[in-house]
Amino acid sequence: MQTTFSTMIELEIVIGRLSQAMEVCDEAQYTPGQGYPYATGFAMSAMQGSLESLVKLKKQLTESDYD
């Protein structure tokens, strides 16, 4: 049960991170002083964090299959 709960939390974090990155990219042209360079860095960071989280989740799920 704990694994399912923590997995759901981690997935919600990934979804939130990617959703926020999409918003930043969508609003980049209307954000003075930030624009596309900021949006690119923000999106890259969101993608890196999401990838790390998903790799971690996959490893946890794979290991739990063998327990």
Succession of helices and strands? HH
Query: What composes the largest sheet?
Result: none
Low-confidence stretches: none
* Rg of Cα set: 15 Å
Percent of residues in helices comes to over 70%
Q: How much strand?
A: under 5%
Chain-averaged pLDDT: 90
Structural domains: how many: 1
Task: Enumerate how many helices there are, as a single number.
Answer: 2
Overview of this structure, please?
- The chain is mostly helical and 67 residues long.
- It has one domain.
- Helix content is 85%, strand content 0%.
- Helix 1 runs antiparallel to helix 2.
- The chain starts with a helix and ends with a helix.
Topology:
Elements: H1 2-27, H2 35-65
Short précis:
The protein is an all-alpha fold. It has helices spanning 2-27, 35-65.
